[in-house]
Design goal:
The protein is of the alpha/beta class and 554 residues long. It has a domain of 105 residues: GMP Synthetase, Chain A, domain 3 (2-Layer Sandwich). It contains 15 helices and 27 strands.
């Protein structure tokens, strides 16, 4: 990582070298070390159930041996289709300990997205819950030949009222029981070996998987550790409450993997409930809590929130969407803490930048400085090999041990994503003289809604299947609750019937995820076009911006 100016070096924590380079390691070695050092300490708390590190190690060992006994070979992919339950960390580490590769299916995925991810990843085994929402879709994949087998985990917490546990498929407890008591003896893997296929959006509108190695993920954890080790706000035993899904790279790395690395406890919860969150913070003396701005909005609006005891909190964070100054001040008033944040990507595992403590007032709006071991620079949009000086606007490029080597079975997209060994992020921004980075726009048309990446082309392709649709453009528009939401501009086909937003949502239910469904539609006689005749997203964005200014004059 030589030959690159790092003006932010003076802002790194004391004792962290400017050329910090994490020691290569594996996630299986990280878990084994944590089990050895923190055996009796709680690793996971889940609605009253506590799993110690020793118990976690035992469960992982039995599941890993079960997988190997069932024929899992080194490098084979296994799909985890799980919400935030203790089953996720057990099977995540078990697949790796067996020598396999994890790929995450999202509960937000529509059936066709699940089928794509199964076919693209080559996963022949899926591990999910026995509750209807998960089991039915997973078993549909099996019936269609997309996977060979489905292992079903029983989790009564996930059941809705009067729902039965699903009876078909291989039962997880029966699958693992013959191997109870097996030692934690991971298959030999190297830091460079693939650990995770994590899906993100593709330029064609089809999800693609970033290939994340053991080295990528352990490096990301080490980078966060290097920053936080000497920070008083995170000293001592850490108890992290998370509603952020572990199937998402942010929840996986910053909540689960970091807690395992340091011997802390992750408190897993599923559907967010602000009152429950505050009760949990008080009862379990939660020290660390973060989420998307919508989570903080709901929490700060609770009745009598000023009277609640949030004194155990030492670290609060927000990410995934823009944060208003008003919300920042409200949280600081309630907790005495400044909401922290930063920037990262699936492709960076997701370590990237962090906002330092005691941020100067004139730096508000920054995404922070690079974490130790990460290099960032601004490059010319038309010449990505050319770095730009401080103050100029261009594309943000990143390199470091945490950065993916590319996309699974996508050599052309991999080649296009890199320039001289630097990953081109698609975010447009600048760096000031002191090394603080700022994002001013997105090169891609990505929408970030409640912390989830939403890709307009995916939505457009799905809406275009509607028999009444002739043309469609989707853009992101400001949303007070979600940060951004998708809005669809539609030209109806001549002679076809009109339809409502609710009717469109019903049509899209089996085609895209719930988080991708537009929150607003507008019918037009025609769409604005560019000079070469293409429908113009920019024109529509400019119109929406002008409309918002008229509605809310400064």
């Amino acid at each position: 990582m030589s030959g690159h100016s790092r003006p932010w070096s003076a802002l790194l924590p004391q004792g962290v070298p400017h050329d910090f380079d994490p020691e290569p390691s594996t996630l299986t070695a990280m878990l084994a070390d944590a089990v050895l050092r923190h055996a009796a300490q709680p690793a996971v708390e889940y609605y009253g159930e506590t799993v110690t590190f020793e118990a976690l190690g035992q469960r992982v060992a039995a599941a890993a041996v079960a997988l190997r006994s069932a024929g899992l070979r080194r490098g084979e992919r296994v799909a985890l289709y799980l919400p935030n339950t203790p089953f996720h960390p057990v099977w995540f580490f078990a697949v790796l300990a067996a020598g396999g590769v994890v790929t995450h299916f999202s509960p937000l995925d529509a059936p066709r997205e699940l089928q794509h991810k199964a076919a693209d990843s080559g996963a022949r085994l899926a591990i999910t819950l026995s509750t209807p929402l998960f089991a039915e879709r997973a078993l549909t994949l099996k019936a269609a030949g997309a996977v060979d087998e489905v292992v079903l985990c029983d989790d009564p917490i996930s059941l809705r009222a009067d729902e039965p546990l699903f009876g078909d498929g291989v039962r997880a407890h029966e699958f693992v029981a013959p191997h109870a008591g097996a030692p934690l003896d991971p298959a030999p893997v190297a830091p460079s070996d693939l650990a995770l296929l994590q899906y993100t959006g593709g330029t064609t509108g089809v999800p693609k998987a970033a290939m994340l190695s053991h080295r990528n993920l352990t490096a990301a954890v080490a980078m966060y550790r290097a920053w936080f080790d000497n920070a008083p706000s995170t000293a001592g035993d850490t108890v992290t409450l998370t509603y952020s899904p572990l199937f998402h790279i942010m929840g996986l790395t910053t909540n689960l993997l970091r807690r395992v690395d340091e011997g802390g406890c992750v408190v897993l919860r599923q559907r967010f409930d602000a009152a429950e969150a505050v009760d949990t913070i008080e009862r379990l003396h939660v020290t660390s809590f973060g989420g998307v701005p919508t989570l903080w909005i709901a929490l700060t609006q609770l009745p009598n929130i000023e009277a609640r005891d949030l004194s155990s909190l030492r670290y609060v964070a927000s990410g995934g969407a823009p944060l208003s100054v008003e919300l920042f001040r409200r949280v600081r008033s309630l907790t005495g803490l400044a909401l922290r944040g930063g920037w990262g990507m699936t492709e960076t595992s997701p370590a990237g930048t962090i906002v330092p403590d005691a941020l100067p007032e004139d730096k508000l709006g920054t995404i922070g400085i690079p974490l130790p071991g990460i290099d960032l620079r601004i490059v010319a949009l038309d010449e990505p090999s050319r770095a730009l000086p401080a103050g100029e606007v261009g594309e943000i490029a990143i390199r470091g041990a945490n950065v993916t080597e590319g996309y699974w079975q996508r050599p052309e997209e991999t080649a296009a994503a890199f320039a001289d060994g630097w990953l081109l992020t698609g975010d447009i921004g600048s760096m000031d003289e002191e090394g603080y980075f700022y994002i001013v726009d997105r090169k891609k048309d990505l929408i970030v809604s409640s912390g989830f990446n939403v890709y307009p082309l995916v939505i457009e392709n799905a809406i275009a299947e509607h028999p009444s649709v002739d043309e469609v453009i989707v853009i992101g528009v400001p949303d007070d609750y979600r940060g951004e939401a998708a809005k669809a501009f539609i030209v109806r086909r001549a002679g076809t019937a009109s339809f409502t937003l609710d009717e469109l949502a019903e049509f899209l239910a089996e085609r895209i995820g719930r988080h991708e469904v537009p929150r607003e539609i507008e019918f037009r006689e025609e769409l604005p076009r560019t000079a070469v005749g293409k429908p113009s997203r920019r024109t529509l964005r400019d119109e929406e911006l002008a409309r918002a200014k008229v509605a809310s004059p400064a």
